[in-house]
Amino acid sequence: MENIVTCRELTKTFGKGELAVQALRDVDLDVLPGDFATLAGPSGSGKTTLLNMIGALDQPTGGSVVIDGAALSGLSNAALSELRLSKIGFVFQSFNLIPVFSAQENIEFILELQGRDRSERRDLARQALDNVGLAGMEHRRPSALSGGQQQRVAVARALISKPAIVLADEPTANLDSRTAADLMALMYRLNQEHGITFVIGTHDPRVMKHTKRHIELLDGRIKSDTRQ
Amino acid sequence: MMETLRTFAPLAWRNLWRNPRRTLITLIVVSVGLWSILFFNSFMNAWMQASKVATLDLLIGRGQIHATGYLDDPSIDTLMPPPDGALEAALNAPEITNWTTRLQLPGVVLSEYKTLPVTIMGVDPMAERVVSTLPGKVVEGRYLRDAADDGVILGLNLAERLKTGLGRRVILMSQSIDGSLAERSFNVVGLFDADKPTEDFFAFTGRETAQAFVGLNREIAQIVFDVPDTTDLDGVVASLQLAAPELDVRSWRELSLFLATNEKFMGGFIFVWLGVVFSLMAIGIINTQLMAVFERMQEFGLLRALGMKPRLVLLMVTLESAMLIGIGVALGAVLAAATIWSFADGVDLSAFAEALEMFQGGQVLYPEYHPGAFAFFAAIIWALGSLVALWPARRASKSSPVEAMRRAT
Question: Is the ipTM of this complex over 0.85?
């Protein structure tokens, strides 16, 4: 089975000279299709940096990252944008929906960037909202949705392009316990039913409870990588 | 591309209203700026037109014909015969509305108290009434009756300086055709009220009287002709020149350099005004758009993170600016049209009559709506405004997705 993500001897250093901070040190990581993994660790352990590398948002100082067969090194900004658009879905801690768009338009927007036609966009967006339990809320703007509902829209947006992997950075941090549990249950169901690969950056034990693989980082290195 | 615009246009429109106050400020800046340019342009054109018409209609006409060399040495030795043959036919062409002949002589006028230089103008009063507005400016006494009228018309100011008046006699002196000094007593039959230079330097009498005064038979100094403003004046001048190649045919632009220069200056001045106003507008546009962009840097980073290419971010922000400036331009144009329409009955500047006399303009100006100027200036402001807004848009397109992720978490 081919890896969705392959990181080899990945290093990332911020700053230079005496002020240099090594955020990642020779990280080797394989993410397999269908993984439902948490990337955990204390603040400063490097989990956000690693998520940025896997998400093609940042370039490593050393080593290599391959996403769904595409090596990131040497890609232009436009090519990295294209890669993110087609292969990676993002879910953020603070939802980050476009405030002037409705729930449906937020999802359609990704499809528009992919060049899909209008009727296809509309059908797929409605279907995606239905899939995350938000049928009937297509025309609500983010400000008219609860935090949990907004995060569901964000999940639907992340999934709409059928990405190879969904990266979620602290997706439950702004949600109450019940909503967080609902969200994790939703992501778990999507993983189970559709085989979608999730890597979730978190230090919330309630999140880790739902996942099948735990990767723990400490001081820029993988301390442990366990599967249940 | 059209599909992209269809997606981004509603997004741009909604983004504009995320901060209504800032949007309204930009709209006010753009619309008031364009309004000032359009109204100022219309006002200046009206002023120029009023000044031109007042000056040309008084004595100059739209063009004149002289004997070659007369304009360099306007003496009795450089006169010409009255028009006939080809020239008369050309003057009677339909594009020329009116024409008349004048004898113009340098001379002096004497009263009991003073001697002053003057230009003696022998005119044909019947033809003069349709070519010149001067007959209508007689405020005391009467205008000349015919070409043989031996009365003289003086300006109010000249009469005051000469300490003479209606019904009194003055002596006109000039060089006669044989080189001797011609002098004759004339009865002041009318006083006219015009601009000071005309009042001070012209004395009008009948053309035949003036010709007899200096011993001429039928010779004249000038032919003055009028054409409608819509007529190609240069074409008319060329056709007259063709009909009388030995004569010197000139349009008012060559005869009144002040007026011609004034017209050019006004045309240039509106662009100076455009530059000043646009500089102020550009500062406002860049300032507000930069604020709008900086406030949304995280959002732009997010869009980049989601896979939006930098050029699409640039397009989106530029579209917002273009839309905003476009609305401002439309509002400014409507506002300017409404202002011009509200002055359809004219702008009465009679309170500044003395100051305006210097510019030889009318006291009531009539600003006009010029669709061409509206389209031109609106397009310029829209295009330049959108151009300067590219700077904030470029900043937006360079937003970092990593920064967005960092701020978002």
Answer: yes
Instruction: Collect all residues of chain A within an 8 Å Cβ-Cβ radius of residue B296.
Output: none
Q: If 0-12 CB within 10 Å is exposed, 13-18 middle and 19+ buried, where does residue A32 land? A: middle
CATH number at residue A110: 3.40.50.300
d(CA B315, CA B338) in angstroms, rounded, equals 34
In a domain, A77, yes or no: no
Helix residue spans in B74-113 (DSSP H): 85-91
Give the count of domains, chain A.
1
CB contact under 8 A, A113 and B405: no
B14, B308, B404 member nearest A113 (Cβ): B308
Specify the DSSP class assigned to residue B80. Answer: B
- Whether A142 is in a domain gets the answer yes
The domain ranges of chain B are 2-55+260-408, 69-245
A116: nearest CA in chain B? B3
Structure tokens at B351: 């309170």
With contact defined as beta carbons under 8 Å apart, do B34 and B332 qualify?
yes
CB-based burial label for B251 (10 Å; 0-12, 13-18, 19+): buried
**B402 closest CB neighbour out of A58, A100, A117:** A58
B275 to chain A, minimum CA–CA distance in Å? 36
Give the closest of B298, B310, B401 to A57, CB-based.
B401
Sign (positive or negative) of CA dihedral B129, B131, B136, B141: negative
In one letter, which amino acid is A105? E
Range of the domain at A174: 32-54+82-227
pLDDT tens across the length of chain B (409 residues): 677 777 788 888 888 888 899 899 989 999 999 999 898 888 888 888 888 888 888 889 999 999 999 999 888 889 999 998 899 999 999 999 999 999 999 999 999 999 999 999 999 999 999 999 999 999 999 999 999 999 999 999 999 999 999 999 999 999 999 989 999 999 999 999 998 889 999 999 999 999 999 999 999 999 999 998 778 899 999 999 999 999 999 999 999 888 888 878 877 888 888 888 888 888 888 888 888 888 888 888 888 888 888 888 898 889 999 999 999 999 999 999 999 999 888 887 777 666 666 555 566 788 888 889 899 989 988 998 888 888 888 888 888 888 766 655 4
CA distance B244 to B241: 5
Query: In this structure, how many other beta carbons lie within 10 angstroms of the beta carbon of residue B148?
Result: 15
CB-CB neighbours of B217 under 10 Å:
8
**Residue A22 within a domain:** no
Q: What is the pTM of this model?
A: 0.74
Task: Report whether A93 contacts B302 (CB < 8 A).
Answer: no
The C-alpha of A157 sits at a distance from chain B's nearest C-alpha, in angstroms, of 9
